[in-house]
Amino acid sequence: MQEESSKKGIGSFINQKILPPVMKFVNTRPIKALQNGMVYALPFIIIGSIFLILSNVPIKSVADALKASGWTAFFTQAYTTTFGVLSIWAVVGIAYVYVKNEGYEALPAGLTALSAFLMLQLLQTTSPLTTAIGKGGTGILNTAGSTVMSAHNVASHVSQLPHVLQTFVKSPITNVINITWLGGQGMVAAIIIGILVGASYSKMLKLGWKFTLPEQVPASVADQFTAMIPAGVILMVSMFIYAGLKTLMHTDLLSLIYKILELPMQGISDSLLGAIVIGFAVSFFWFFGVHGGLIVAAIASAFLIPNTAANAVLYHAGKLTLANGAHIITNEFYNNFINLTGSGITFGLVIFAVFMAKSEQFKSIGKIELVPAIFNINEPFLFGLPLVMNPFLAIPFFLTPLFVAISTYCMIYFGVVPPLNGVAAPWTTPAVISGFLIGGWKMAIWQAITLAVSVIMYFPFARRYDNYLLQKEQQKAATDDSETTAKD
Fold first, then answer.
1. Is residue 391 within 8 Å of residue 398, measured between CB atoms?
2. What pLDDT does 408 receive?
3. CB count in 10 Å sphere of residue 412
4. Which of 333, 126, 113, 381 is nearest to 231 (CA)?
5. Vertex 263 angle, CA 259 and 264, to 5°
6. In angstroms, rounded to a whole number, what is the distance separating the alpha carbons of residues 333 and 378?
7. 18-22, 123-127, 225-229: lowest mean pLDDT where?
């Protein structure tokens, strides 16, 4: 009784003191805009991942044939214009959702955010010659990606030019959009700009800062005039910010955000501590009946998706190693390990329920959960078994994803398995298949091992809970029989 009272006390404290402020934060306008706005990027991430695989086929003979035929370059073009411009989809989607949730015509706000995002960055890129002759330079490549002049030869030829020509050929190329900032490197800036544009655009419309045209004017035309003042103010402010940073600091807003915010935050998320926090947080919120996956994803995706994109760039360049800056914890680490077969990695419960359970409740829920679990969905267990607020299963529900997160981090850190390659396998991709897609055959084997770990960790607790349910069912059956006998 004392133990049960203690558990109720802890649950009451969590529900009254911890969850309300967390839920209040998660349901704020910016976080809802971030969460729902990023959904618009998913088709491009997944389709782009297919092109990423095709441009880096792991079978050498096939890869060489595609490279020689020129198809690798075509697949690279497709990858670059889908997955490679991830920040564009993010900044438009976030501003769009923010304004839409406020009840206004949202597309002009999304386009305004895109314009501001482009305006706040230096429209220049590094000279190809600088890249070719720099540290670890690639040399000059042909359209098929083959080296036609080594980095050493390029450097020796450039050094023979007059100094003024050397300076010219190595100067940045201006008046171009640098696609580096359109990918994962510009993601945090895209999130900030998308939220700020959505908030300020909505605020100005609420204050009545808009042209009101006669009713006779078609709605499609009137909507654009409505957007003119808020869009004009936002873009004017963006221009002054760009001008101030360019003049006074010789930089741009995206570079500052990347150095001051994104790099440190990626470092924190891409650490053993980050693995522990993420692995624990999902189960923690779910245990108290709150959708842990949505809460954690809404916050962590801001840093994990750029990690995925950065790994994809390295994988595409054939440089996917930790020494070259590859990240261990990516969005796929979260989706395809911490949430493997569903929050809490409940594969072990499925196996027990289908093959070893004796109670009718456990067996029937197991049959219902079997197919969804293949696609990483386990709501039937969370609410039907239930796992929510279930003290019998709390320990494996918390510890299994935590163990998998820590062990997977260590497996990558110590080079037993390679870093995740940046391919964004949909979270519903079945286990082992997703492992192969995101990290090759070694990762597929490791995923299979994590499933076995889930079986081992859940088994003793599931058996104890099953015996408890069986005892209750037998008691109920005995009570029903006695009542039937009494009636007869």
1. no
2. 96
3. 23
4. 113
5. 105
6. 18
7. 18-22
CA–CA dist 281, 377 (Å, integer) = 18
Name the token pair of 97: 């959702």
Query: What percentage of the chain carries pLDDT values higher than 70?
Result: 85
pLDDT at 3 over 50: no
> What letter does residue 40 receive in the DSSP assignment?
G
d(CA 27, CA 35): 10
Longest Cα–Cα distance in the chain: 112
| Residue 290 to residues 293, 349, 452, Cα–Cα distance (Å) | 9, 20, 27
Asked whether the beta carbons of 242 and 252 are under 8 A apart, the reply is: yes
The gap between the terminal CA atoms of the chain, to the nearest Å, is 38
**Two tokens at 319?**
């440089």
Measure CA 124 to chain center.
28
- pTM assigned to the model: 0.78
Residue 480 structure tokens: 């029903």
- Delimit the domains of the chain by residue range: 2-126+172-269, 274-487
Determine the Cα–Cα distance for residues 383 and 393; give it in Å rounded to an integer. 13
Tokens of 340: 């493997």
**What are the Cα distances from residue 121, in Å, to 99, 238, 259, 435?**
24, 10, 14, 37
Reported as a single tens digit per residue, the pLDDT across 283-316 is 988 888 777 887 788 778 878 888 999 999 899 8
What one-character-per-residue DSSP string does 169-229 give?
HHSPEESS--TTTTTGGGHHHHHHHHHHHHHHHHHHHHTT-S----TTS-HHHHHHHHHHH
CB 55 within 8 A of CB 75: yes
Tens digits of per-residue pLDDT, 156-171? 666 776 777 767 766 7
**Contact predicate 68/144, CB 8 Å:** yes
Task: Give residue for tokens 């050498």.
Answer: 60
Residue whose entry in the numeric block shows the structure tokens 């192969």: 436
Say what the alpha-carbon torsion angle 137, 142, 147, 148 is, to the nearest 10 degrees. -110
Q: What is the pLDDT of residue 261?
A: 86
Provide, for the chain, the percentages of residues in helix, strand and coil under a 3-state DSSP scheme, each rounded to the nearest 5. 70, 0, 25
For residues 307 and 286, give the distance between their C-alpha atoms in angstroms, rounded to a whole number.
25
CA distance 177 to 465: 59
- Dist. CA 15–CA 452, nearest whole Å: 33
Strand 140-141 and strand 147-149: the pairing is antiparallel
